[in-house]
Design goal:
It is a single chain. About 40% of the residues lie in helices and about 10% in strands. It is α/β, with parallel strands linked by helices and about 350 residues long. A five-stranded parallel sheet has the order 4-5-3-6-7, with helices on both faces. The chain has a two-stranded parallel ribbon with strand order 1-2. A hairpin with a 3-residue loop joins β8 and β9 (about 290).
């Protein structure tokens, strides 16, 4: 609270994101309210240095917002909403959009969802605990509070909301090959692979259609409308704080730069796992999955046969999503995988007679 012009001027010159608010109330109205008896005591000479009596104060010359608090009085919520709209360019609490965060499973939502959930909950959003609670989303829309929901569900689940102005959609996808590797690695670490080798698990998942997850993600990616924010893991991981700022602007969820940076640090891959992106280590599985946090790890795990099979089954998504302009990557990987394959010892291929050269 600043009473003097020199303080107003210093604040504006030195405080980042300074926003000056003047709560304007007529002098007679202040004296009438006098909730703490301060003005009546000043009038009787019992206290000194009371603004308006013996202490002069400067009316702000150019306030960024004037809140008129004269009768008829408005509710605290109405005044707060006026402040939100003016100071931050945000929707009022009752007008803030619902937010649906869709991601292709194993595509890196752990870098963003915990941050957005925390900020949304701090500003009155109802939050569903996990993608498994999508069935509660539609009933919550009728509650009057804004809703934040993280989901893996197909697009048709939200068909009724796609054209609503009060709903924002965020769509996060990733190179499908890396998605498959993360999924299978998670199964192996959890001991759910029934002793099958890695390549067999890859190929079985590909032949089965991989739960139709890529088809569903492709439908989400095809959305081109103003209430949909398309996001790719490869671009997001290069600058998570910048991505968070973009998403907050898109959704209208308020947050100070300090709060954003603190949450980005708290939920960073390095902070959670204790290692840098790309370093080997155990997959961490809780509500979110943390494995390597990099792009292109599929090349360390696909053999030639898996690469060819993936291209035949899902190559159209690699092209459409901009990961591979042609199908030549698979044949190139066959050559690389062949060069890097373990070389069997020549002695193991010899007959006992020809290998008995010590005699």
């Amino acid at each position: 609270m600043s009473l003097f012009r020199e303080i107003h001027e210093w604040n504006r010159a030195h405080l980042p994101n300074y926003f000056e608010i003047w709560v304007d109330v007529d002098w007679a109205e202040l004296c009438e309210r006098d909730a703490r008896g301060l003005y009546s005591r000043a009038a009787r000479g019992e206290v000194k240095n009371v603004a308006g009596f013996d202490l002069e104060y400067d009316r702000p010359a150019q306030p960024d917002l004037v809140l008129n608090n004269n009768p008829p009085l408005r509710s605290a919520t109405e005044l707060a909403n006026e402040l939100l709209r003016s100071a931050l360019g945000l929707h009022s609490l009752s007008q803030r959009p619902h937010v649906v965060f869709y991601n292709l499973p194993n595509s890196g939502a752990s870098a963003l969802v915990p941050i957005l959930e925390t900020l949304a909950e701090a500003h009155g959003y109802a939050n569903l605990a996990s993608p498994a609670e999508t069935h509660r989303f539609h009933p919550l829309l009728e509650s009057g509070d804004p809703v934040f929901h993280w989901t893996h569900h197909p697009l048709e689940t939200f068909a009724a909301e796609l054209d609503r102005e009060d709903v924002r959609f965020i769509c996060l996808t990733r190179d499908p090959r890396d998605v498959l590797v993360s999924y299978i690695k998670d199964i192996i670490q959890a001991g759910l692979h029934e002793g099958k080798p890695e390549q067999q698990l890859f190929q079985e998942a590909i032949r089965s259609g991989f739960n139709q997850w890529f088809e569903q993600a492709h439908a989400w990616r095809a959305l081109e409308q103003t209430n949909v924010f398309q996001l790719d893991f490869e671009a997001m991981k290069t600058d998570v704080p910048a991505t968070v700022r973009q998403l907050l602007e898109f959704t209208g969820i308020p947050a100070s730069p300090t709060a954003q940076n603190a949450l980005c640090q708290k939920h960073s891959f390095e902070q959670i796992t204790g290692r840098a992106r790309g370093e080997n280590g155990h997959t961490l599985r809780g509500q979110f999955l943390y494995r390597k946090g990099i792009t292109g790890d599929w090349a360390n795990h696909f053999d030639g046969q898996t690469a060819r099979l993936f291209q035949r089954r899902f190559g159209r998504y690699l092209r459409a999503w901009g990961h591979e302009p042609t199908g030549q990557w698979a044949e190139a990987h066959v050559s690389v995988a062949a060069r890097n394959a373990p070389v069997r010892s020549s002695m193991a291929l010899c007959s006992p007679v020809c290998c008995n050269w010590n005699k």
